[in-house]
Design brief:
By secondary structure, the protein is α+β, with helices and mostly antiparallel strands. It contains three helices and eleven strands, in the order αβββββββββββαα.
């Protein structure tokens, strides 16, 4: 997106967003590349697009540390979308890596604990609501004692 195209887009979107999302910064435009997903249940091609990154906001089922809130610039209408960081390959040409992943046995089966940056994230319901759980704490403590 050229600076002229970006300015034109920002002017148009400011009219659409006028006062609607107070936390929107139209200067925070990012370039995203996503990974291809192929599972028996889901197939999505890799994508590349520009988006306005919105401030994180608590949304049930979407932990803040594992998702991006954004408005895609390649879509004709303005709508907020959630994009899981598991699907993101890079943001502004910087790779987004899940450094490590562990399977932890819990009371209702196995859960996945991931290390994103310095934060341990878990896919259990307790983590979704409280932003901490015994599974992520167990892995963090194990890694702290090793390191």
């Amino acid at each position: 997106m050229t600076p002229k195209e970006r300015d034109r887009f920002v002017d148009e979107k400011q009219k659409e967003l006028n006062g609607y999302w107070q936390d929107t910064s139209l200067n925070d435009i990012i370039h995203i590349k996503t990974k291809e997903i192929k599972t028996p249940y889901l197939q999505r091609a890799a994508e590349e697009f520009h988006a306005i990154k919105l401030q994180p906001r608590e949304v049930p089922g979407h932990p803040i540390d594992t998702t991006l809130r954004l408005i895609r610039l390649d879509r004709p209408s303005v709508s907020i979308e959630m994009l899981s960081l598991d699907r993101v390959f890079s943001i502004d040409n910087k790779e987004v890596n899940v450094k490590k992943e562990w399977k932890v046995k819990g009371s209702s089966g196995y859960y996945t604990v991931r290390l994103h940056g310095e934060k341990y994230l878990c896919n259990c319901k307790g983590f979704q609501f409280r932003k901490k759980c015994k599974h992520s704490e167990l892995i963090r403590e194990q890694n702290d004692s090793e390191g």
